[in-house]
Write a structure and sequence with these properties.
Elements: E1 5-9, H1 13-24, E2 29-33, E3 44-47, H2 53-60, E4 63-68, H3 77-95, E5 98-103, H4 127-144, E6 150-154, E7 157-159, H5 173-178, E8 182-185, E9 191-192, E10 194-196, H6 197-209, E11 217-219, E12 226-227, H7 228-239, E13 245-248, H8 259-265, H9 281-287, H10 294-312
Parallel strand pairs: 1-2, 1-4, 2-3, 4-5, 5-6, 6-11, 7-10, 8-13
Antiparallel strand pairs: 9-12
Length: 313
């Protein structure tokens, strides 16, 4: 078993899935969250406020690799995430660790449907997109300046086990198993990339294991884009049920996506009004991996939600 400590910041779906994957690789793992109650068997759970420099430094002490998967509510991101970045950079640098950052497609902004690669210009038009672009520029500058090794792994919209708060999550799979209606956003006949969370976790772990991958952005393994309507058809096939779809053609409250969330998400709604296609071929070629085929990933997600709902009664 490897004795190099791997520290995962954030106990949401991405952080817990990554922690479980790292444990499977034989690494000692520590999960850091504000509450410190992450339930991943075999991992150490630590509570910390990651905007506090002292707490962040203590949380990552002894780490060989730190994975930044922590996030905050949409309405607090512009205020909180830059402060969190500085504390995490300082703490990881003091520990002598490599830093792997889970990132989004927001810095690219609207592309007019052009396929997004790692060479796509950063032209964010939203506040949160510009904030993410500024953070990413600072991460890459920290690497260039020799402060610590940093690598960014970008993902499209998540789906998969543990994923509820997503456009392809809790408003889709449980309802599909019950026959609908499920939620969809924007134009469901546009191609849209969806990243399967176990592939995202495996990709982040691979970046953490490859020191020479640092200093740049990578697109994490993501299956070729299909339209959201086609993804719904895959879900129907996996559940054995047909369902109706409620399409939001504009950002407005629906179910768990309340008024506060939708007001904050409105500036990013362009992602569902134009093709949103991410190309991960650079990662796949460099590391010799392939994303899980979309039908297989959808079927596994349906199985997970079916079991989770049964367990909840």
């Amino acid at each position: 078993m490897s004795q190099s400590l791997h520290v995962v910041l954030g106990a949401g779906p991405a952080g817990t899935t990554l922690a479980a994957h790292l444990l499977g690789l034989g690494h000692p793992v520590r999960i850091v969250s504000r509450g410190g109650g992450a339930a991943v068997a075999g991992a150490e759970a630590v509570a910390a406020d990651l905007t506090d420099h002292a707490q962040a430094a203590t949380a990552v002490a002894g780490a060989a690799v730190v994975y930044h998967c922590a996030n905050v509510a949409y309405e607090r991101q512009v205020e909180v995430m830059p402060r969190m970045q500085e504390a995490v950079l300082d703490g990881a640098a003091a520990a002598g660790a490599r830093l792997v950052v889970l990132d989004t497609l927001y810095p690219y902004g609207p592309t007019g449907g052009a396929v997004m690669t790692e060479r796509t210009p950063w032209r964010a038009v939203s506040r949160k997109g510009r904030m993410r672009a500024d953070l990413d520029a600072a991460y890459l500058a920290a690497h260039r300046d020799g402060r610590l090794p940093v690598v960014l792994g970008r993902s499209a919209d998540f789906f998969g086990p543990r994923v509820f708060n997503s456009s392809l999550g809790g408003t889709v799979f449980p309802a599909a198993l019950a026959g609908g209606p499920v939620l969809a956003l924007g134009d469901i006949d546009q191609p849209h990339s969806y990243s399967y969370l176990p592939d995202v976790a495996a990709g982040l772990a691979r970046l953490g294991a490859e020191p020479d991958a640092a200093g740049r952005v990578w697109h994490l393994p993501t299956a070729p884009a299909r339209t959201t309507r086609e993804v719904h058809q895959l879900i129907e096939r996996a559940t054995g049920r047909t369902f109706t779809v409620d399409v939001l053609d504009a950002p407005r409250p629906w179910g768990p996506f309340d008024e506060t969330f939708m007001r904050e998400y409105a500036e990013l709604f362009y992602q569902y009004e134009e093709p949103q296609v991410m190309d991960s071929s650079a990662f796949e070629t460099r590391f010799g991996v392939r994303p899980t085929p979309l039908p297989e990933a959808v079927a596994a997600t349906v199985d997970w939600f079916r079991a989770a709902l049964a367990a909840r009664g």
